[in-house]
Amino acid sequence: MKKIMLLLANGFEAVEASVFTDVLGWNKWEGDGTTEVVTVGLHTQLQCTWNFKVTPEKLLHEIDLADFDALAIPGGFEEAGFYEDAFSEEFQRVVRHFNDQQKPIATICVASLILGHSGILHNR
User: Fold this and answer.
1) I want to staple 111 with a disulfide (CB 3.0 to 4.6 A). Which of 18, 37, 57, 75 is the partner?
2) Alpha-carbon distance 2 to 91, whole Å?
3) In 10 A of CB 5, how many CB atoms?
4) What residue ranges of the chain have pLDDT lower than 70?
5) Phi, psi (degrees; rounded to nearest 5) at 32
6) What is the rounded distance in angstroms from the CA atom of residue 90 to the CA atom of residue 109?
7) Do 40 and 8 contact (CB within 8 A), yes or no?
8) Burial of 51 from C-beta contacts in 10 A (0-12 / 13-18 / 19+)
């Protein structure tokens, strides 16, 4: 079983998160069953774009990063506060951990800016 962390920033785009939950969720139930997605955030409730609220399954401080095989991060909107979480040291630490462990990192849209901000793209 591959365990994927879906790291959600306040202000994330729900449609972009659904790309990961839908594809990997269908694999769990109708495919070969080798994936599990766990939603993780910094807050007990996250405000998505378009006035939609989400409760992550786990808070970042409750998990062990070593338990995950891959990292997925959807983008979001600056106007919704996305970069406050996305550029926080907590988020950056997660990105650097997955990079240091050579584990896959997938981002959508402006979430790719998190990779640059974390420093993992330096000299690449």
Assistant:
1) 75
2) 21
3) 25
4) none
5) -85, 0
6) 20
7) yes
8) exposed
